[in-house]
Amino acid sequence: MSADILFRDLTNISLCISATLCVLLVFVRAPKKDSLKNYRQTRHALIVSFFLVTLLNIFEIYQTDSNIKHHLVILDTLIVSSYQILFFSATLIIMLDFRSYSMRKVLREIIPITVFSIIGYFLFLTRNFVFLHGWFWLFGLYFVSQIIRYSLLYRKVNRNTVKKLDNFFSEETAGRLKWTNAAFVWLFFGGVFSFMSLFLNEWFSLFFTVFYTFFYIYFCIHYLNYVALFLDMEAAFTIVESNQSKEKFSKKSYDELEKAIQEWEMQKFFVEPGITIEQVATQLRSNRTYVSTHMNLHRKMMFKEWINSLRIEEAKDLLRCHPDMPVSQIGAMVGLSDKSNFGRQFIRLTGKSPKAWRKDQ
């Protein structure tokens, strides 16, 4: 089978998949919560993105003039890829933190891409291929700058989001968002491969077609499952303090809070599974902002790190006092019912597994 025939077949498959995903997103609905407003708007951006891919695939399939097709493919690939890396990057960033990026910023980013697109199609339609080649390089450089800028922004937002989650939840909640890292790495290399496909042979284009088609499927599966995940994490991004809580915040000194924390630790409230900083702050008769600041500045720990260090110390006492008790039971007793998570936390803090540590005692 020749590369042209294979490319045509793969493009047809990609066309069907992108069109199906586009239609699917049209009918998807998210809860009408203010905190999900930006997420709902990203759905429109993704619909546009998949629609552009569908059009690009149609043009590539039905264009027969090889010279015209070559220029059209480069033109469409640059334009569609530029829009796509914007829309997908913005979506991933908004999914990490809905406050960190707005659709207004996305609209500002659309302006230069649209200007480049209008100029490119004008040069193509007037068959001014000499200037069009210069346009290819200029737009290509802008496209590379997009990849770099969005990568840096994503890294910053991802780091801040992990910090927020670790300062709110005692469990490995941030791990549930690791798929966004995989998706962004996929998107990053997709942008690089998109740029490379403009200069390499048709066999690389075959690889690129398969690459982005699988990316679309992977992304949409996680995108559609995101709402339930967000609703579990929403409290970490929303700080709501009552007037009474603010009054306590202003009156309680660091020494008083430290004493209250020590008493809380002695009562071993930390063994409650899934405890959050909001619950701890309520038990301390304080508020989560004050407790979080105290932990970060005075204990030099994130909330999750503090709770799990207390749990592991309690687990060590239980391992010493109950040598015949199953390790999994001890993990459950200290609030780490997931055996693998208990093992990871124990190794991280002691350098040994619970069983190995028990044998050395």
Task: Classify the beta-strand content into a percent band.
Answer: under 5%
Whole-Å distance between the termini? 67 Å
- Architecture of the largest domain in CATH? Up-down Bundle
CATH names the topology of the largest domain as: Rhopdopsin 7-helix transmembrane proteins
CATH class of the largest domain: Mainly Alpha
- The count of domains is 2
Q: What is the oligomer described by this structure?
A: single chain
* Biggest sheet layout: none
| Helix content percent band | over 70%
Give the ordered list of helices and strands.
Answer: HHHHHHHHHHHHHHHH
Structural class: mainly alpha
Number of strands: 0
- The Cα radius of gyration reads 26 Å
Average pLDDT, rounded to a whole number, is: 86
Low-confidence stretches: 241-251
Q: In words, what does this structure look like?
A:
The protein is 77% helix and 0% strand. With 361 residues, it is an all-alpha fold. It has two domains: 3-237, Rhopdopsin 7-helix transmembrane proteins (Up-down Bundle), CATH 1.20.1070; 243-359, Arc Repressor Mutant, subunit A. Helix 3 (66-96) runs antiparallel to helix 4. Mean pLDDT is 86; it is low at 241-251.
Q: How would you concisely characterize the structure shown here?
A:
The chain is built from 16 helices and no strands. It has 361 residues and is mostly helical. Helix 1 (3-27) runs antiparallel to helix 2 (37-62), helix 3 packs parallel to helix 5 (129-166) and helix 3 packs antiparallel against helix 6 (178-196).
